[in-house]
Amino acid sequence: MNKHIDAINVDFTYDNKKLVLNNVSLSTYQGESVGLVGPNGAGKTTLVRVLLGILYPKNGNIQVFGYNPLNKKEREKIYGQMGYLPEGADVYPQLTLKQYIELFKTLHEVEDNSTIEELLDMFDLQDVFEKRLGTFSKGMKQKAKLLTILIHSPKLLIMDEPTDGLDIASKEETIEYMRKLKKKGTSMLIATHDPYLVENLCDRIIMINKGEIIFEGTTQQLQEVAQNEPCYVIELMEKVKKEKLEEILNNIGEPQKIIVEENTIKIWTDDENIAKNVYKKVVDEGLIVKNFDRYLPTFSQAYKNFLEGK
Ligand SMILES: Nc1ncnc2c1ncn2[C@@H]1O[C@H](COP(=O)(O)OP(=O)(O)OP(=O)(O)O)[C@@H](O)[C@H]1O
């Protein structure tokens, strides 16, 4: 698979005293979307800027499409093939949306308007095409910015908080659009605090804290490693009285904890056989089981658990 971003052992400091990025290595591949997550001040925006050659690293090697972003000529080759959405940057308030788009069309030498039309439709911006950006709401400005980084069908998207200010419908449509881009081979590095975006778009996450990578893997892998205690869940077809379930499970093994609700039984144990015994007992009692599986925390919960454990 084609590597798009390749960063090795990157250190960065703003003041020559404290490392804001400490030995960071990461790669992204064609058609892959990677979520860059971590708490406030972790170093996400700094990392994005270093990868783009906006900030100069203290140590390390960075290549994007095989070019060095710190070299001006090579940087131009990178920028021509990618879209960058900076965090919270304002749009030119005096420009109309039409003029703003023209600017990026010229920059990227885009002649065909079909992608622009599609994006204007998707973001519901047709009616404000002639309006000044200064009159736009926060979400509309964000859509205008997203539109301009997509008009030249970039091979790589580096985005800092792309869903900031977007309503849920726009967020869903944007994610759907990004998924289609991914299928065509576009790769993405997305710095974000939005769990919805991560769960619905990112193939992989890289978590940084205090300038260091502390986790790399899929959201499911994070959910698995961040589960404080293994848990199994038995979901019943129909609701059963809590007292009845408690009575059925009264003499079962030695599970550390069994939590009974009306149609679910959660068994907190590191012994899978105990969970299987509970399952068998429930079935022997004539109850119909809809689902029996490992129970995983949500991505947000796993993210919190993982950070707390660090
Ligand atoms: N221009 C700057 N000069 C000095 N220090 C900076 C500068 N920009 C950021 N920092 C510091 O670098 C660290 C990382 O900041 P950065 O903005 O990269 O974090 P982040 O993960 O993007 O945070 P957030 O989620 O809040 O956007 C923080 O300690 C921050 O105070």
Can you give me a brief rundown of this structure?
The protein is of the alpha/beta class and 310 residues long. 35% of the residues lie in helices and 26% in strands.
Fold and architecture overview:
The chain is α/β, with parallel strands linked by helices and 310 residues long. It folds into two domains: 3-217, P-loop containing nucleotide triphosphate hydrolases (Rossmann fold, 3-Layer(aba) Sandwich); 229-308, Alpha-Beta Plaits, CATH 3.30.70.980. The protein has helices at 44-51, 72-80, 97-107, 114-122, 138-150, 168-183, 195-201, 219-225, 242-248, 272-284, 299-308, and strands at residues 3-13, 19-29, 33-37, 59-64, 82-85, 156-160, 187-191, 204-209, 212-217, 231-236, 257-260, 264-268, 289-294. It has a six-stranded mixed sheet, with helices on both faces. It has a four-stranded antiparallel sheet with strand order 11-12-10-13. Strands 2-1-4 form a three-stranded antiparallel sheet, covered by helices on one side. It is elongated. The mean pLDDT is 92. Bound molecules: adenosine-5'-triphosphate.
Q: Ranges with pLDDT <50 over ≥5 residues?
A: none
List bound small molecules. adenosine-5'-triphosphate
Overall pLDDT level:
92
Total helical elements = 11
Range of strand content = 25-35%
Through-space gap between termini: 33 Å
Strand order within the widest beta sheet: 5-6-7-3-8-9
Reading the helices and strands in chain order gives EEEHEHEHHHEHEHEEHEHEEHEH
Give the CATH H-level superfamily of the largest domain.
Answer: P-loop containing nucleotide triphosphate hydrolases
How many separate domains? 2
Q: Give the CATH level 1 class of the largest domain.
A: Alpha Beta
